[in-house]
Amino acid sequence: MSAARKHTALPKAQTLIEALPWLTRHHGKTVVIKFGGNAMIDEELKAAFAQDVVFLRHAGLKPVVVHGGGPQISAQLDKQGLVSEFKAGLRVTTPEAMDVVRMVLAGQVQRELVGLLNQHGPLAVGMTGEDAHTITATQHRPTIDGESVDIGRVGEITAIDTGAIQALLDDGRIPVVSSIARSADDHHVYNVNADTAAAALAAALNAETLMVLTDVEGLYEDWPNSDDVISRLTASQLEKLLPELSSGMVPKMQGCLHAVRNGVETARVIDGRVQHSILLEIFTDEGIGTMVVPDAPIDVHGVPEQGES
Predict the structure, then answer these.
(1) Residue 152 pLDDT > 90, yes or no?
(2) Dihedral sign of CA atoms 283, 289, 290, 292 in order
(3) Among residues 20, 190, 251, 296, which is most buried (max CB within 10 A)?
(4) Cα(167)–Cα(188) distance, rounded to whole angstroms?
């Protein structure tokens, strides 16, 4: 009986041992995780996400969570009879809509996520980009058909102050950041794309890794003709692909590009529909999803890397 028990437990030990080099490599490093898509709506995926983030923290990493809340915002706007209009893939955000955005992100999505994380201990602290002037923005005016268009309270990030987030990390906490920003003069609050905010924070925090949860397996090589996922590509390779990408992937991949061009060692797009995808990506040899690396990746010993997963 005892021999059989020992035998069935062996794969667990092998799994833990496989994680050892990755645990060593990532220990003490900051990782910024963009939380979104199905992982944000499905109850089981939400719970698994919270477990993963707490696991990272207990494994010696310093996770920072950044979230948006598109579906929840749309639902609340509908409930209040406010029309959602999109231009150039961005939600036109009137002052009335901005009040709803703020309420949903900071009062609903963030609170729920903080609650899920804190089921595992007093770790998570919620904040928005407004707090301590963490994210400063100016009005974003996209160019559509050659003309600059006013889409309301949509922000373009102009500055990041990491002081409050760093203080929380130094205290062993998990910051949960809503993608809202203030103007430099404090007169306006802006809705900022959460992919963009996560990338800007990852660069400013000198994070080792940016992870973006999506509703696809990663970046496809030849969609829709094939569902083969590109497992790894350099910043320059990604830049060439950007014009061909679907609109939903553009801010995610632009964020990855910004991160690795500004000091972040790797940026990864992973499938948030897979339970524990974060742990699979960080702690296994195979990895999942698509990893973006700088054009000339150098490891900690100054030697060019040899095809990391």
Answers:
(1) yes
(2) negative
(3) 190
(4) 26
